[in-house]
Amino acid sequence: MKSILITGGCGFIGSNFIRYVLEKTNYKGNIINLDKLTYAGNPKNLTDISKKYENRYFFEKADICNFQQVKDIMIKYDIDTIINFAAESHVDRSIFGPKDFIETNIFGTFNLLEVARELWKDRDGVLFHHISTDEVFGSLGDTGYFYETTPYDPRSPYSASKASSDHLVNSYYHTYHLPVKLSNCSNNYGPYHFPEKLIPLMIMNILNEKPLPVYGDGKNVRDWLFVEDHASAIWLIVTKGRVGESYNVGGENEWENIQLVNYLCERMAFYLGKEKDYYKKLINFVKDRPGHDRRYAINCDKIKNELGWKQSVNFEQGLDLTIKWYLDNQEWVKEIQSGEYKNWIDKNYQKR
Ligand code: NAD
Ligand code: DAU
Hints:
This protein has 352 residues and is an alpha/beta fold. 44% of the residues lie in helices and 16% in strands.
């Protein structure tokens, strides 16, 4: 690998992944970050990296749905590896308006595959790695896990669009022999997480003493993974995983939402010098998310046994790191909340 194209590298996981590869692996080649800069993309996530690695890190503002833009960038940098993070990623937004999800997640992935098929015809040493989610497997009851072999059963427009893109990626492997790999990961958390998602939203609302909206009965379960552990898993799969395979990645760390929100209230009280239960009065049970998946739980034995991956941070440590990051980076939060994100929230969420 000499020249890796990261799509969506200005988002939460993409920017953490770029930082991880440049700072914590022995990769010596170039990284090209292709990002459309939607409301969720912020080049400032990588300001330090763009200065420190100015000869190896390059940013291109472009849309994965635009064939010519992607092709020109692939040729310009002689790309041999694509890691596709670019997506519309928020389930609630996909319920309010699925169109962007269909365009970017399905058509955008198709477009990237088409460029790769054209430019990499007869070329060895190339790879298309697709970043996917555990949500494609649907919803679990009180027991059981998602395995790589679990049949897909997506239930929101977001997860349906991700499932569709996964199927397209696999179809290019079988039909055109494009070398592909996939990873399906559980809920990430950590620095640069957009504050519309549960953990950063709750941290910010606690800080500002605003209501903490818990959907339904709060007993939905998610499996949380620190974002840098997702990055290390992707890097292992890209460098050592088997072509044509998918790998599950998860935290093995299941929490009911209400249990997690209570815990966040306690940790925030600790950092802000309040009594342990002070912020719990802000908890507000609101109307449930339509089609709200009850429980996600990942079995990640395959990546552990085959590639030797393991989580490096336990949840309590990871959450403390995350809380401190948000407390130290209020300017970052204010800036992204001042634009399109804020307008969208004002329009859609205040109605509930
Ligand atoms: P994010 O919303 O924070 O970032 C998405 C990035 O993609 C943004 O920088 C955005 O500008 C860019 N983008 C959107 N549309 C684009 C387009 N048409 N062309 C180019 N760039 C575009 O998302 P995230 O949470 O970092 O998720 C990244 C990937 O990981 C997604 O594919 C998501 O489905 C997957 N995933 C996320 C999680 C999670 O917990 N966040 C878990 C598993 C898998
Ligand atoms: O499982 C992986 C997925 O995790 C990724 O594919 C998605 O991109 C990512 O956004 C995330 O999806 P979720 O829907 O699980 O994450 P979210 O943070 O939106 O919600 C987590 C849980 O918290 C979910 O059960 C809904 C609930 N919730 C969420 C918000 C935003 C609330 O109760 N209140 C809220 O305000």
